[in-house]
Specification:
- The chain is of the alpha/beta class and 147 residues long.
- The chain has a single domain, classed as STM4215-like (2-Layer Sandwich).
- 24% of the residues lie in helices and 45% in strands.
- It has 2 helices and 8 strands; from the N terminus they run βαβββαββββ.
- Strands 2, 3, 4, 5, 6 and 7 form a 6-stranded mixed β-sheet that branches. Strands 1-8 form a two-stranded parallel ribbon.
- It is elongated and about 50 Å long.
Length: 147
């Protein structure tokens, strides 16, 4: 039985986001407040676990959420929309292009990668948000999870 460390794919996603040049800040874990102002901020969190059958074996699928925030008052609305859409598109391509996140997972589940848009208030600041759902198929589901 092997050990699966969720920290590795989370850090790999964080590294991709930071290297993309799209973000003013990138965080792993929910943030009680975000710095208002121009630029997009990203927050990476784990949102779920399910079992999927890949070929004949059951595999764990960990779902990671990449939430992009942009202060609605910092820039014109049209600029925020296009920047968020471009960021989601490019980040999705990057994650799918690096299919196993440096060997830390079996692969990103491309069929279930998705995004949705909305608004959210954090610490009395209204943000336009894009939420990217990234399902990660684990290399060996017979293992145990370590932090």
């Amino acid at each position: 039985m092997t050990t699966f460390t969720l920290k590795s794919p989370l850090r790999a996603i964080e590294s991709y986001l930071k290297a993309s040049g799209w973000f003013a800040a990138v965080h792993v874990g929910e943030q009680p407040s975000l710095a208002p102002g121009p630029g997009i901020q990203a927050v990476v969190t784990v949102t779920g676990l399910r079992t999927a059958f890949v070929t004949t074996a059951a595999q764990q699928v960990w779902t990671v959420r990449v939430k992009l925030y942009r202060d609605v008052l910092a820039d014109p609305a049209a600029q925020s929309e296009t920047d968020l859409a471009r960021a989601v598109s490019e980040i999705s391509e990057d994650l799918l292009g690096e299919f196993d996140l440096g060997g830390s997972i079996r692969n990103v589940d491309a069929a279930n990668l998705s995004a949705r848009w909305g608004h959210e208030t954090v610490a009395r600041v209204m943000y336009r948000v894009a939420v990217l759902t990234v399902p990660l198929i684990v290399n060996d589901s017979g293992g145990t999870l370590t932090p």
